[in-house]
Amino acid sequence: MSRAGANPSHSTVGNAIGVLDLQGDVFEHLDHLQRLGIDARPVKQIEDFDGLAGLILPGGESTCLARLLRIFDIEPVIVRKYHEGMKLWGTCAGAILLAGSLTGEAPHLGLIDIEVQRNGFGSQLDSFACEALIPKISSEPVPLTFIRAPKILHAGEGVEVLLRIEDFIAAAESADILVTAFHPELTGCLAFHRYFAAKCGLRPRTEEAAFDPSWNMTSWTRHARVA
Predict the structure, then answer these.
(1) Least enclosed by CB within 10 Å: which of 9, 77, 113, 114?
(2) All domains of the chain, ordered by start, with CATH?
(3) Is 208 a catalytic residue?
(4) Is residue 200 classed exposed, middle or buried when 0-12, 13-18 and 19+ CB atoms within 10 A define those classes?
């Protein structure tokens, strides 16, 4: 059942951003946040939610993530923390989890009034990259990486479309939730992470350019635990 119509109570939030660490692009997001000087940490257990101003639900495999949310009983914690004022950002699979409606199947968290079609472009072979100007996010074009991506088909009341490409919505937001069908964490562009940090009431390093020239495709590995 969709909870998209409910509004957060905006009580007490913290000063860090967490990245849901069950499966998917966890370290890539942590790397981007830390480049902005944001206190960021992986979130795997219920106690990890303490002190969070925001939570990123990363790209990965949405069916797997949804199952793990239920197994570890994290789904009700996310909903509760959201209603207490924690902001949310879902990238790719994360957007699927947050959607109030899914084409042909029941929604999961159901916290934002959007309709999403899983695997909207087809198989992994239909993944692609492009760039687009999103004025609310950056004054210069930002790179977009779509990997077996969903399509946002519809945005309801209270949801602002940030980017529309042809017949689908690629990025949208409500007052407390950001969703992107693509993966900003897989490029050197920090614009979306800077925007989400500000949405969470945090102060990222605003003097830096949209792109970090020191970033490369293996930068995230500095956060990975090596056995």
Answers:
(1) 9
(2) 16-221 (3.40.50.880)
(3) no
(4) buried
Active site residue 183: yes
Task: Mark whether 92 is an active-site residue.
Answer: yes
How many angstroms separate the CA atoms of 203 and 206, rounded? Answer: 8
Q: Which residue in the list 28, 29, 92, 200 is annotated as catalytic?
A: 92
Q: Report yes or no: 91 and 184 within 8 Å, Cβ to Cβ.
A: yes
Residue the block writes with tokens 């969703």: 179
What amino acid occupies position 148? R
DSSP letter, residue 220: G
Q: What is the pLDDT of residues 115-161, one digit of tens each?
A: 999 865 655 545 668 899 999 999 999 999 988 789 999 999 999 99
From residue 100, give the alpha-carbon distance in Å to each of 19, 110, 224.
21, 4, 33
Catalytic residue among 183, 189, 193, 200: 183
* pTM attached to this predicted model: 0.89
